[in-house]
Specification:
The chain is of the alpha/beta class and about 450 residues long. It is built from 17 helices and 16 strands.
Amino acid sequence: MSYPFEPFKIKTVEPIPVTTREERERYLQEAGFNVFNLPSRAVTIDLLTDSGTGAMSDAQWAALMRGDEAYAGARSYERLAQVQRDLFGFPYFTPTHQGRAAERVLFEILLEPGDVVATNQPFDTTHANIVARGAEVLELVIEEAYDPTSHHPFKGNVDLARLEEALQGIPKPKLVLITITNNTGGGQPVSLENLRAVRALCDKYGVPLFLDAARHAENAYFIKEREAPHMSIRDIVRETFALADGMLMSAKKDGLVNIGGLLCVRDKALYDRIAQNMVRTEGFPTYGGLAGRDMEALAQGLLEAVDEAYLRYRVGQVRYLAQRLLDAGVPIIEPPGGHAVYLDVLRFLPDWPREHLPGQAIAVGLYREGGIRAVELGTVAFAKKDPETGAWIYPRMELVRLAIPRRVYTQAHLDYVADVIIDLYRHPERLRPLRIVEEPPFLRHFLARFAEM
C-alpha cells in the first residue's frame, strides 16, 4: 500500500540514539531484560507506548504561552471546558493529570468490594484500579476479538447477549465501561450500532454507561470508514459521547499532549463527589493536577485530533507498517487498529511453551537486534496463578504491541522497524527463553525483572 504523506511540515528535530549490539546487551543486563527499565538514550525507535509520546503542533506550543496559572478558575480551564462541551457535550468535567488518575477518582466513588464492572476489555491500569477496589472485571468482548485473522470491522464490540445475561444476574454489574478503541484486543474499534445497543441495555437495567475514551478520535475514524460515511468525525464523536453517562480519558493519546486527562459526567451529585475527591487527592477541580499551560495545549490538541486529514494519516501510517509485515508473512492482529501493530506471538513462535515467556522474548529480541522498544501484552502482563492449584492461567492471546507515537516517526523509520521484525521472524533461533526473577503483585510487566535461560 502507498504511504500516507504527513499533513504537516517538520519544524523541530531531535537526534535519535544509535547503539551497538554490545551496548544493547549491556543495557539489557542492567534492565533485568525488562524494556521498561531501559533509558531512552539507549533506544533507537521507541514503540513502547503511544501515551504521551507524540509531537505537539506549533499551535499547541504557542498555546502554552497563554497558560493562566491561577489556582482556581483559570482562563485555561475555561478554554478547555468550552472545547470539552463542544466536542463531547458533558455538563460537568474536571481535568486530571492522566487517565489513571481519573480511573482512581471515579472507581473510589462508584465501586465497593464485590462489585462487578462489565466491559469489552479494560487495559492494564484500568483493570488494576478496578481490582484495587476489591471489584471484579467481567470481559464481554465479542468472540471475533480472539481470532487474530478475523476481519470483523468492529472487533472491540460488546457481546450483547452476554451483557444482558450479566445485567440480569446477581450481582448485577455496578457499571458498564467500554474502551474505545479496545487497546487490549489490538486497538480494535467499537461501532455506533453496538454502543447504541449497550446504551439501551443499560437503560433497561438501570446501570450507568461510561466510556474509556483515550482513542475516541481513532474510533470515530473507523466508524466513518466502515459504518457511517455520511457523518463527519465531529458528529460521530458527539453522538458517541451522547450515549454515555460519563467518560474518562487519558489525553496523552487522542489529546495529542504529553500529560493530561479528563473525567466528565452528566450527574451533578456524582460530580460533587468527584470534586471533593479531587480536592483531597489531585488538586482543585479546575486544574486537577495540570498546569494552565497543559490545559491550553490539551484544548488545542483535542481539536486537532478530530481533523480528518490527520486521522487519515494516523491510521494509514499504522496500516503501512502492518502491511509490510503481512507481505513478509509475519503474523499480526488483523485488521490493524488505529494506534499500534500487534504481533501474534502464538503464531510467531508456535512451538514455544508459554512459561518461557515468548512475548517478552520477542520484546527483548527486538531491542537486542535493532534498538526497538515494544511491549509484551501476554503472559507477563495478564497471566495469573490459580490460587488453589498454583497452575498458570494464561490469557487467550499473547501479543507484542508496537505502539506508534503520533506525528513522530516517518516512513523510513517504519521501514527500519519492519526490516528488523521480518529478519527476527525468519531467525527465531536468535530468541532466548526467559523466566521471572522479581515481580510486584500488580502490573507485573512494568516492574518485573527477568533472566534469560
